[in-house]
């Protein structure tokens, strides 16, 4: 009987499996791991329990699994409404880093944290300062509802 079960397992493992399209970019699982890695240090500070974790409405951010992970650990999630990228330098930074992060399929030991770290290491400090200055310079235009292009 044992040999039959072992043989069945071997047949299952060797039978052709339908090929799935592999995502080159970030998927919800990567983001879940990234969040857990970010929340672990936060857990060392009991005063942070109940704090909000803010994110945009990207599909990987609004998955039900993400909500469950955040609330299970006693934090709260909030999704930001669309806003002016001109006032948010992090959006410009992500636009530079995203192609590197999505460059290829994630390998087994690699995670989103690794890709973000490597991508951010390639961005010059002067670039980040210029993005921030641009946002500051655009603030009055946005308040006056002037075109920013």
UniProtKB/TrEMBL annotation:
Pfam families assigned: DDE_3
Which InterPro entries does this one have?
Answer: RNaseH_sf, Tc1-like_DDE_dom
* Cross-referenced Gene3D superfamilies: Ribonuclease H-like superfamily/Ribonuclease H (3.30.420.10)
- Origin, by domain of life? Eukaryota
State the Gene Ontology terms under molecular function.
Answer: nucleic acid binding
According to the entry, every stretch annotated as the Tc1-like transposase DDE domain falls at: 32-110
Q: Tell me what this protein is called.
A: Tc1-like transposase DDE domain-containing protein
